[in-house]
Amino acid sequence: MNETASDIPGRTEAAPRPAPVDAYALHADAIQDPPTTLFRALRQIGPGLILAGSIVGTGELIATTSLGAEQGYILLWLILLSCVIKVFVQVELGRYAITHGKTTLAALDTLPGPRLGTSWIGWLWLFMMLTTQAQIAAMEGLVGQAAHMAFPGASAFVAATAGRVVPGWGTFLTDHPEHFWASLTCLAAIALLLSGGYKRLEKITTALVALVTLITVACVAGLPWTDYPVRFAELKTGFDFALPATGIALAFSTFGITGVGASELFAYPYWCIEKGYARSTGPRSADPDWGRRARGWLRVMQLDAWFSMVVFTVATVAFYLLGAAVLKPQGLKPQGSDMIRTLSQMYVKPLGAWTRDVFLIGAWAVLFKTLYVATAANSRLTADFLDLTGIWRGHALAGRERTVKAFCVGYPLLALGLFFAVREPKSLVAIGGYAQGLMLPVIAGATLYLRNRDTDRRVGPIFLTDIFVWLAFFAITAVAGFSVYDLADKLFRGKV
Predict the structure, then answer these.
(1) Residue, of 255 and 199, whose pLDDT is higher
(2) Taken in order 218, 219, 224, 226, is the CA torsion positive or negative?
(3) CB within 8 A of 404, min separation 6: which ones?
(4) Highest mean pLDDT range out of 5-19, 178-192, 213-227?
(5) What is the residue extent of each domain of the chain?
(6) Secondary structure (DSSP) of 46-61
(7) What is the CATH number of domain 33-276+284-493?
(8) pTM, whole model, 2 decimals?
C-alpha cells in the first residue's frame, strides 16, 4: 500500500506551485478594476521607474556631463527639451499597448511598407539595438573603472595571481585593470538575469540611485558656497536656444540618449504589459465597462510616465550643471580610462574627498542597474522580433522565456567584446546615442500613424495632448534633420 503525505502523521501535502502567468496573454479572469485614489494609483506605478533606472546611466553620467564640460550652460534648453518632449510619444505607445494588448514590435508590424518576414521598421529597430550595444559596452567598462578605483588592492592581487599562471596576463591586467572588473560585471549581470533575482537587487540599487541623485542635487545646491558657483548670468545663456558650432554631433547624441531614448520608447510597452496594465484592462470590446477600465488604467500609466520623467529630469539637469560648473572651469573632459576618475571630481572638488567612495559605489549601482534593465529589455524585444519574422517561433510562455534567457547571455558577452576592442567609453556612448537619435523621428512618426489609424475614441487622447505629440514629432525630426545635415556637410568638406 502506498502512503501519501496526508497519511503520515505530522506531515501535510505541499501546496502545489501556482502556474506561471503569461503577462502577454489577455484573459477575462485576469480583469481588474483600476485604482480610484491617487495613493492606490501610486502603488501601481513601476514601468516608468524601470525606465528611469535605465535612463539614469550612461546618458546622464557620461554624455550629459561631457556636454556640460565641453559646452557649458548653452545647451541646458536642449537637455530639458530632451527629457520632456519624448514622454508624449512614450505615453501614446503605452496607450496603444494597454488598449490593444500588443507589444511595440507587434504594433509596428502592421505598418505599410516593405517586409522581410516582418515590417521594415522592425529591421531598423534591430540595427539600432545592435548599435546601442556600444552603450552597454561602455557601461561594463565604466563599472570596471569604478571597481578598480574602489578596490585597487584587489586589482593588484588579481594581476599578480594571473602573472604567476601566465606572465603576459599579469602584465596586461596591470596595464588594464578595468578588464578584469568589466568581465566580472558581465558574468554577474548574466547570472542575475538568468536567476530572476532582479527584485532583490532592484531594491538595493534603487536606493543607491536615489542616494547618488540626492547627493548630486545637494552638490548643485551647495555650489554657490564653493569655488564653482552657478552664476545666473551664465545659467541664463542656457535658455538662448542656441547650438554651438563645434558641438553639434555631441548635442545630437545627447538628445538621442538623455531622457527617454528610442530604446526606452520601444521597451516601455513591454514593461506596461508585464506590469499587468493590459491584462487588467482585458481584451478590447464594445462593453462600456471595458472603456471605463481602460481609461482608469491609462490614467495610472500616465501617472507612471510623468512621475518617472520628474525623477530622471532632476538627475539629468543636476549632472549637466555639475559638468558645466565644475568640470568646464577646470578644463576637465571625461574620456578614456580616466573617465570615472574625472567624473568623480564633480563631487570631490565641491564637497571634499569623502564623497569619492560614495560616488564610486553610486556609479557602480547606476551603471550596473542600467546594464541589467537594458539587456532585459533588448532580450524581450529580440524574442518578439524573431517570432514576428518567423526565424524562431516562441508564442508559448516557455519558448519565449528560453529565447529571452539565451539573449540575456549573448548580449552582455557581445558588449564585453566590444569594450575590449574599443576601450573608449565616450565614443561608445556617442555611437549608441547617434543611432537612437536617428531612430527617434521614425518611431515618433510611426506612433502618430498608429494613433490616427487605430485609436478607440473612447480612450483617445485629448486635443491638447495631440498637439504636444505633434510638437514632439516635429522637434525630434528637426533636431535629427539638422544634425544629419551638419554631419553630411562635414563629410563633404572632409572635416570628419
Answers:
(1) 255
(2) positive
(3) 376, 379, 380, 382, 383
(4) 178-192
(5) 33-276+284-493
(6) -HHHHHHHHHTTHIII
(7) 1.20.1740.10
(8) 0.85
